[in-house]
Each structure stands twice: as C-alpha cells, then as structure tokens.
Amino acid sequence: MRLLLSILLALVLFGTCSQAADVTVVTEQWPPFNYSNDKGELTGLSTDILRLALSQSGLEPDFQILPWARAYDMAQNDSGVFIFSILRSPAREPHFQWVGPLIPSLSVNLYKLKRRTNINISSLEEAKQYTIAVMKNGSTQLFLQGQGFLAGENLEVAASNDLGIKKLFWERVDLISGNAPAMAQLARANGFNFSELEEVLPLYDCGLYAATSLQTPQSLINRMQTGLDSIPPEHIETLIQSYLQ
C-alpha cells in the first residue's frame, strides 16, 4: 500500500511541471502537516493528501509557501486561492468556503515547560493569569480572544510558531498552544526537546481543512471536494500512520 501511494504521489508531482495552474494553494511551514524537506520540496501529511485530491479532481495547483498572515489574507480575499492546513473553527466558519477534512480531528492544548512548577491551570479563567504565545491569525488566537483573552495582555501574538516556541523555552511567555505531533516537530526543528513540555489544559478538537474565499466559484470547490472524497479511507489512514512513525 505504501509503495502504491509513493508511486501515485510521484506521478502527481511529475505532472505539475507542464500545465498552467487552475488554483493557487498557499501554506506555511508547519511540520508534520506541511513543510519543506531537505531538497526544498513541499511535503507533509496534509500536503500529500491534498496533492492526491487535486490530482483526482483534475485541477492543476500552484503551491506557495508563505508567512501564515499573508497566506491567510490571500485566501480570505482572493478568488481561486486555497489555504491549508487550516483548523475549521467557529470564528473562521463564516469567512471562508471549506474543503475537507484533510485530517478529521486534532486536539489543541496548552503546554508549559515542566520546569515551570509555579504554573498550575485547571480552567481557561485560571489561564488568563499567564501569557500565552499564539500565532497571528491562528485558530488559537481567535478562540482565546473569543474567551476574553487580550493581545498585549495575556496573549503574546507571534509572527511564526518558531518564534512562539523560542519565547516559551526562553521563558518570555508562560504557555503555548498546539497539537502534540506539530509541537514535537516544532520543538525539534528549533533545537528543543518536546519531552520538556507538559500538557496543562485541553482547548478544543478541530479538523484540518483547505479553505478559500467567499468569492471562489463553487465549481472549483466542488471539484476539489469530489477529488478528496474519492480517495479511499484506507489510503489516507496509511499516509497518517507513515507520518506518525
């Protein structure tokens, strides 16, 4: 099964070299879901699933890796631009049209350094006593602001997840949000050890999607969703397991 998926993905990548793009697909560096490998190629769990969906739909993509805030703005305002991997949250729901889920469900939690034994949290209200690193326009920023948290007060809005994890280990913030697979990769990529972190409070569960502006034609969204739905569930599960090993 894994060999078959590798062949399919190779064919998808080979076929992107000669055709004009039908859609622009923007993303950020967020391993293990979407990131550049050692050769500078866009890869990742969500990337592999989306490539297969686009191939099945017959749509030719132009993939671009951008800062999250810029990618988010393009996808929210420009027709034919899709952003991934994006958490589908109530705060974002009315601002986009959605394709997915690429990944059915992820648990988003607050983490602290284990050595920070002075931090004890059992509720969101208690978390307001501390400073939380969040990424600009990220789902956790929107979620926490909806719960009464304020940027510049108990939210430290960072331009990237890399900056957020550095501030946590440098003890310039008290907490950071994320899901376990991404946090492990993020810590490792920045020279830190995920085992030094401790989950202190679950925030919400949410699926990972691709999203596009309200101006994007429904026909494009339908084609992409149909392509995604045509991928056998066992193929997606095999991909998920390959990234968890």
Describe what this molecule looks like in 3D.
Keywords: Signal. It comes from Desulfovibrio ferrophilus. This is Extracellular solute-binding protein family 3. InterPro entries: Solute-binding_3/MltF_N (IPR001638). By secondary structure, this protein is an alpha/beta fold. Mean pLDDT is about 90; it is low at about 15-20. The strands form two sheets. Strands 4-1-5-10-6-9-7-8 form an eight-stranded mixed beta sheet, with helices on both faces. It has a two-stranded antiparallel sheet with strand order 2-3. It folds into two domains: about 1-105 and about 205-245, Periplasmic binding protein-like II (D-Maltodextrin-Binding Protein, domain 2), CATH 3.40.190; about 105-205, Periplasmic binding protein-like II (D-Maltodextrin-Binding Protein, domain 2), CATH 3.40.190. The chain is built from nine helices and ten strands.
Features:
245 residues, alpha/beta, D-Maltodextrin-Binding Protein, domain 2, 2 domains, eight-stranded mixed beta sheet, two-stranded antiparallel ribbon, 37% helix, globular
